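Entry:
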Amino acid sequence: MTINTITATTVFTDEVLVRAAELAKDAYRPVWTGASGEESTGESVARHLEAATDLLEGDGWARTYTSASSVSTELPAIEAMRIEDMLREVLLAVRDEITATATAPRTLSVALEHVAHGEDGDGDTRYVAFEVLNLLVRALTGHDQALATSWAERLHRTQQDITDLLAAAARFARTYGPRDAEATQAA
């Protein structure tokens, strides 16, 4: 199988961004309004997307999520375990899961979720970032129901494809998103 390693500006051209802007204009609900009912600026959404890119470049990208927990699934029968042993196994499992996911390669959606809990984003910028990513994939594919997460999980997709998508989405957000003075709270 041959994989195309094309830059973001080759796949996500200005024409694709213009088509995405037209889709945004015709959208049923406002693209830039998050689940809180407040509008996010293009700049805040772009920062969220760029922070997700930084996470993927630092920790790596995974096409799909798989648990890397090292906790043994071979436990004695619960009836035979003491309460202290059960509690110890639960705490070890939680610790291993937290450690495994803290620096493990991330999917696109996990990277966006992790940014929402940090300094560069929140729940609204995550929500709008997904909307922007979906618009770009719809504009690229011509399919009105295409989703960025499904596009990112295709077998032939590469980390470069994902970072190209995120870069194009940040560029789209800065170009077509609301400016600071325009960001208002929805009534």
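The helical segments are 8-11, 14-25, 42-59, 83-102, 108-116, 123-141, 148-152, 159-176.
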